[in-house]
Amino acid sequence: MVPRVVGTLAAAVLVGLGALHCYWAAGGRWATDVTIPKHDGAPLFTPAPVATLLVAVLLYAAALVLLGRLGIWGRWLPRWLFVVGTWTLVVVFGGRVVGDFQWFGLFKRVTGTPFAWWDTWVYVPLCMLLALAALFIAVREP
Predict the structure, then answer these.
(1) pLDDT digit string (tens) for 47-57?
(2) What residue ranges do the domains of the chain occupy?
(3) In whole angstroms, what is the distance from residue 10 CA to residue 15 CA?
(4) Which of 105, 13, 100 is nearest to 62 (CA)?
């Protein structure tokens, strides 16, 4: 019961994040000033709409992986796909928590920017919760 609740909540968060990325891919501007690190006031990179849409698709796929691991979705697919996928989510979101040791993550060197604040107080904790949710599901589900 508890893994299903945790997994469903994590999947809902991932779907919401996917929707936000679709909004950005369509040209939406809300919150874009704090979603990409900046150096000397200029964004480090400007993601193309197609790349942003790809991130949305991956977030939706991550939600389906969690739901599939719980047996809520995709029962016709091989079980190993969801087992490997769930562990992949643990690694990916855990890696995002650790960061690149420069711009984002727990060990970033660049602080004092709006992005760094959001990264410290929102993005890293959110990724940590998603990594822990995936880990919980990975070890609790047979």
Answers:
(1) 999 999 999 99
(2) 2-27+45-140
(3) 9
(4) 13
